[in-house]
Amino acid sequence: MATQILMPALSPTMEEGKLAKWLVKEGDEVHSGDILAEIETDKATMEFEAVDEGKIGKILVPEGTEGVKVNQPIAVLLGEGEKPGNGSDIPATMQSIKEAVKAEAKPAAKAEVPKPAAPKPAEAKSEAPKPPPQQRPSAEQRVFASPLAKRLAAQAGIDIAAMHGSGPRGRIVKADVEDAKKSGVKAPAAPKPAAQAPGQAATVSGIAPLPDARLFYKPDDYTEIPHDSMRKSIAKRLTTSKALIPHFYLTIDCNIGQLLEARARLNAAAPKGEGAYKLSVNDFVVKACAMALMRVPEVNASWTDTAILRHKHADVGVAVALDFGLITPIVFQAETKGLVTISNEVKSLAERARNKKLKPQEYEGGGFAISNLGMFGIKEFTAVINPPHAAILAVGAGEERAVVRNGKIEVANVMTVTLSCDHRVIDGATGARFLQAFKLFVEDPAAMLL
Description:
CATH class of the largest domain: Alpha Beta
Order of helices and strands: EEEEEEEEHHHHEHHEEEEEEHHEEEH
Number of helices: 9
Number of domains: 2
């Protein structure tokens, strides 16, 4: 029997995406692991792999379609002996898909019920009660499984919602169902998380929405630029962050004279050709943050409803400005890496971010972030915490300023940084100790060797 190919969830926070390009056409044979399509999420363009074998019978969502919901049918996969097209082999599947798409497109529409004739006086009290409206399954009830695995589980009487998947991103595949059948028992129930899932949008009650800005202007006075998926994601996450995370800010000045001298010496000694490098001030900042996180581990943490997660490594996100938004790829275990490795890694991440080629595991998670606007001449600013982080460091420009030393006015290269803290995780004194450690490593880079 024909089965459905569903829009995949390519990251834990993905709710919808753009079907950028089909790499197969109707009638093509596909095998497990073959690339079917390119899916564009809010952060990157990723390849979608087949998990079952068969023949593409019908493509339901054309390439270039935006806003395709996760688990929405996008194509029909035919089994052995079935024919492609709209023949008699798949009418039932096509009909079920059309009904599902129609229901998804109009979730709030009320079913029209024919108005009954006026009941007789004796029948007025015996009118049957109206059935309660059906509710759509929530995101927590969503089951990520291949159509074939779902069908085999239903035939075997196995609760597929209670299974652990071994496929890509935890997807339940045919082998998982067969293993459960061989064991002779139903699959064990997976424990439900007590806290809210990472990245899940939180609602803010009691706050009235802002009026539409178009109410204040004439249509000829502006040009509308529709929101893309990245801008929607940025707006949603940062609005939630500012509304629900109790931010507080700590600012400190750092004398980066020795840092600039060390940077100049190292760049001058860099080899030509293979192995060449060019260190930036930001590379030193990333390394200094990583070392400070190891010295003050209370800052290297994330909040959940039941516990604080203290991270074992300094996974430092570096905000990268794009023409179409913002993304924060992560330098993992930065405390173990040298300046050249950090420099090359940041450059590679930034380049792939601009081409939307980052993988979800390269920008999701982490324990801390840096936002550097010094290259734009910004002296100081405050940054919004990016959940699940508990802090972010806003880095301003290094500039010559007049400072007082031993009662005398001197010129020094000074950089102002501001730490945004989640007060649920970090107290004021804890944040201050982190900035003290950071200042030590930035002002005396040799201290990072200790």
